[in-house]
Amino acid sequence: MKCQVLKEDIIEGVQEAANIIPVKTGTAYLRTVWLETRDNALTIMATDSNIEFVGTYPAHIQEAGRIGVHGKKFSDLIRKLPPGEITFEANSGDTNVMVYHGKRKYKLPINNPSWFQEFKVFPEENGIIWSGELFQNIIERIAFCISSEEDMGAMNCIKFSPLENDEIEVCGMNGHQFGLMQFAVSDIHAALGETGMLISKNDLNEIGKWIRPEDILVSLTNKRIFMRSASGHETLSVPRRTYDFPDYRNFIQHYEGLFRTSIELDKYEFVDALERILLFNTESSRSVYLHFSPTELGLTCHGQEFGEGSEIIAARFEGDLDVIAIPTKVLLEIMSHFKSTKITIQFAGPLEPCKVTGPDDHDYFVITMPVEVTEDTYYTEEETS
Q1: pLDDT of residue 380
Q2: Are 40 and 58 in contact (CB under 8 A)?
Q3: Is 45:17 a contact under the CB 8 Å cutoff?
Q4: What is the dihedral of CA 206, 153, 338, 254, to 10 degrees?
Q5: Residue 130 — φ and ψ, nearest 5°?
Q6: Which CATH topology does 257-368 take?
Q7: Per-residue pLDDT tens for 331-381?
Q8: Mean local confidence (pLDDT), 59-63
Q9: Is 2-115 a domain of CATH 3.10.150.10?
Q10: Which of 36, 87, 151, 308 could form a disulfide with 66 if both were Cys (CB 3.0 to 4.6 A apart)?
Q11: With contact defined as beta carbons under 8 Å apart, do 314 and 265 qualify?
């Protein structure tokens, strides 16, 4: 193979390929980035055995061919080169590929060509337009609610569920947190079929790194989800997961009538107070205590190591709870995903789920779990004679 290509044309594809391949774990063939030259284009391919990335970029081809190189080393080299033309050259039977950039010259070992496995082809006939901005929004607002542990099965995934009237529901849960949002797009609704689809957190992370706000072309098969960039140069595909997703509708309906206590507050004032309270959290004291009164909310945290903090902010409270404890970082994370200035938190009880909503987020809510309120004693005074 031999070709010339501009660094600025391929750098994003090289970095995306390097993001996908495992750096230290997995077999050597999975740590390989494949370069293929033909039809006036350089194609860059990488996989971790689940996710597949294929990027095709304009190039001047002098000799067609395909080679595999160590993905991390190749990516680091291309990233550190200045802008300009790069030449890749390897003759049939060579064990190294030469990389030229101006007066610079590098030699990279070529991996065993038998390691190459054909990549899945984008199914053109099923393609539908998705808003990349919508997909980004879904990932940003739901992915934080799902488990990062792959052995958690369905709780490591978000679920796209088709409803009536072209509505689509997207939800994720990890056992102590639940997020749900809705949107309506008829083409996507039809493509999901009756069962919907599951995407794992690791796959979502890679989609989030790759996707842009512009429209993308999406095609679904029984086993995979294919995405093509607006330019048409790049394709990313991930597997459709097949776990049995919990029937979250029963959970929602069960608690809907039990949220009899609520507090309405200003999100920005609440976040400011939480960020200061967070300074006093420790490994053993990670929660903020919320103290309720009709027109105010008290926030406290105390720990032996860093001292204690106490704040009061304006709020409108209705109900009969006195105090509840929720991990401070959890509340800050949840608040960061709401557009609304005013936030309502509903409570079903001191140890029951809490539901967070906002008037400008009518299609979105998050449910989280409080922790048990404990009274810690750090020292006692003893009488001495």
Answers
A1: 37
A2: yes
A3: yes
A4: 160
A5: -115, 145
A6: DNA Polymerase III; Chain A, domain 2 (3.10.150)
A7: 999 999 999 999 999 999 999 999 999 999 999 999 999 998 765 443 334
A8: 96
A9: yes
A10: 36
A11: yes
How far apart (Å, rounded) are the C-alpha atoms in residues 133 and 214?
6
pLDDT tens per residue across span 81-114: 999 999 999 998 899 999 999 999 999 999 999 9
- Cα–Cα distance between 285 and 139 in angstroms, integer? 30
- 183: buried, middle or exposed (CB in 10 Å: 19+, 13-18, 0-12)? middle
Which residues have CB under 8 Å from 254's CB, separation 6+? none
- Of how many residues is the chain composed? 385
Judge if 127-243 and 257-368 fold alike in CATH terms. Answer: yes
Name the pTM for this structure.
Answer: 0.88
Nearest to 14 by CA among 63, 101, 90, 73: 73
Q: What is d(CA 89, CA 73) in angstroms, rounded to the nearest whole number?
A: 17
- All structural domains of the chain with their residue ranges: 2-115, 127-243, 257-368
The CA distance from 217 to 135, in Å, is 12
* Residue 133 near residue 174 (C-beta atoms within 8 A): no
239-242-244 Cα angle (round to 5): 150
Rounded to whole angstroms, how far apart are CA atoms 231 and 37?
A: 19
Terminal-to-terminal C-alpha distance of the chain: 92
Does domain 127-243 sit in CATH 3.10.150.10? yes
